[in-house]
Design brief:
Growth Hormone, Chain: A; mainly alpha; 2 domains; 391 residues; 19 helices
Length: 391
């Protein structure tokens, strides 16, 4: 039963990653067919992010009422509904409407599953589960590429929508299995705090700033890597787009490797180690090295360094702030993450247009430095709370 539950959770994380890179991979064809500017992708992505922020903030309340299994199944079905909306869309306004259930479903799944895993599984599984999220993000561009080559971009959304719907049905069919490890979830429901109370817990503001800063830097590296290669390293646009995937590959591989050592080292050390590794990659970008090899290696190293940070910050939340607070705090964390990943990459784009995209290393180091300082303050504050409680 435990093995089946692990497999279901891994499958759910793949489903969480599948829609995330569909829009970017299909947009060159979508915007041309619908006759809208390339920049309109930002409108859709921000609509999706708005939905994820809202659903992340209310996820704890909904999960306490209905349970993780029900929320995950319903949210996966809601995401499938949004994907089917994209499949049937023949105008831009239909994409906007479809983005609403798309985003609302994704945010609730993210918050509910991350809290469930943090409560019930070791740090090792948290790392590997987020590795499987990476598998989903890597797989969906291939699905879209196949659909465009053999059918239309609409079919890409239809295929992923069907996968999401099938996973939702599977989760509902296996509901009794989810109850096998529901003890921690039940405890959290009995003594859980609300959103406002969670914000007042000492250390939570530091945690939110840390997560905001990390996701801002990660998303900037993801979205602007190809532009950096093309504008700064003078690499052709097609090759630059291919090279941008190295960041995803480095992060996915890093999370797989991290799973073997994270239980032994602990979340705090994994965050520190990851920060040191990604700093090496950023330093390489600062160096005036000719050719593309150094820049390519740097983005792989940055991805490797990023790998353990996101899972470790989430996994440490119950131990830092208590089971009763974890659901609400992780929901706020997810909202903070989406704010960072939604608004900071466009800010970098504006700065890059005026100052040059060569500022990327400096831009990244500022946010990663803010992240590690805030993360350390979070752990120290949590340790003081624990010591005070013992006294």
């Amino acid at each position: 039963m435990y093995t089946l539950l692990i497999a279901l959770t891994y499958l759910a994380f793949i489903s969480l990653g599948l829609p995330d890179s569909l829009l970017g991979s299909g947009w060159p064809v979508i915007h041309a067919e619908l006759g809208v500017p390339v920049s309109y992708m930002g409108i859709i992505s921000m609509t999706i992010s708005g939905g994820t922020i809202i659903s992340s903030l209310v996820s704890d309340r909904v999960t306490k009422k209905f349970g993780t299994c029900a929320v995950t199944a319903a949210s996966t079905a809601l995401t499938a509904l949004g994907l089917f909306g994209f499949w049937l869309s023949d105008s831009f306004w239909m994409l906007i409407v479809s983005s609403l259930p798309y985003g609302l479903g994704a945010g609730a799944i993210d918050a509910a599953l991350n809290n469930y895993v943090a409560l019930h599984y070791s740090s090792r599984h948290m790392s590997w589960l987020h590795c499987f999220w990476g598998v989903g993000t890597i797989a969906s561009p291939f699905i879209m590429s196949y659909a465009i080559a053999n059918m239309t971009w609409h079919a890409g959304y239809m295929i992923v929508g069907c996968i999401q719907l099938a996973i939702a049905v599977l989760i509902i069919a296996t509901r009794p299995v989810w109850k096998a490890t529901a003890r921690g979830e039940t405890q959290a429901r009995r003594g859980g705090t609300g959103l406002k109370s969670a914000l007042m817990v000492k250390g939570v503001p530091f945690l939110l700033i840390a997560f905001f800063a990390y996701c801002a830097a990660e998303a900037t590296a993801m979205y602007w890597a190809s532009t950096y290669f093309a504008e700064v390293k003078a690499i052709g646009a097609e090759r630059a787009a291919q090279f941008a995937s190295l960041f995803y590959i480095g992060m996915t591989a890093g999370r797989f490797v991290s799973g073997f050592v994270t239980d032994r080292l602990g979340d705090r050390k994994m965050i520190a180690i990851g920060t040191c590794i990604l700093t090496v990659g950023i330093i390489v970008l600062f160096l005036p090295i000719e050719g593309e090899a150094a820049a390519l290696s740097a983005f792989i190293v940055i991805g490797l360094g990023c790998a353990p940070i996101y899972p470790s910050i989430i996994h440490s939340t119950p131990s830092n702030f208590g089971l009763e607070n974890s659901g609400a705090i992780i929901g706020i964390q997810m909202a903070s993450a989406y704010v960072g990943s939604t608004f900071i990459p466009p800010l970098f784009g504006l700065l890059g247009n005026h100052l040059g995209f060569g500022i990327m290393p400096a831009f990244l180091i500022v946010f990663f430095a803010l992240m590690i300082v805030m993360a350390e303050l979070t752990f120290r504050t949590a340790a003081k709370r624990a010591d005070g409680g013992k006294k």
